[in-house]
Amino acid sequence: MIKRPITPEAYVELVQQAVFEISELRSSLEYDADGMDSTLACIDDLEKSVKAVYAAMVDGSYEFADKDLPFMDIVKGKDDAFLPFRDLLSVINDTHRNGIEVEVD
């Protein structure tokens, strides 16, 4: 399992990685898209939600909070076969709820 990041930059990189993974998943689904309209709609919602988190980070309005990010409603309903990067999204959410991991020497 991926650990919570220890720097804000590492957290931003996790969100960027999630945006990339969603884009890759979309590409593969569109390639094999026979009757996958509801699946693509789910990916659309997931992508919008993760991109909104990234946009808030970029514009400085992002705030940590002890509540799930909106995309977790989608993530919780899917298994690893559908979302192979589900752990990544869960770590992003965990970091959102609990903050950056602090290393103690």
Question: Can you describe this structure in just a few lines?
Answer:
The protein has four helices and no strands. The chain is mainly α.
Verbal overview:
With 105 residues, the protein is mainly α. The chain is 62% helix and 0% strand. The protein is built from four helices and no strands. It has helices spanning 8-31, 37-59, 72-76, 86-98. The longest helix has 24 residues, at 8-31.
Topology of this structure?
Elements lengths: L7 H24 L5 H23 L12 H5 L9 H13 L7
- Helix % is 55-70%
Sheet bearing the most strands, described? Answer: none
Query: Helical region count?
Result: 4
- H/E element sequence: HHHH
Task: Please tally the β strands and state the result.
Answer: 0
| Assembly level | single chain
* Rg over C-alpha atoms, rounded to the nearest angstrom: 14 Å
Instruction: Give the overall shape, derived from the CA principal axes.
Output: elongated
**Unreliable spans:** none
Class from secondary-structure proportions? mainly alpha
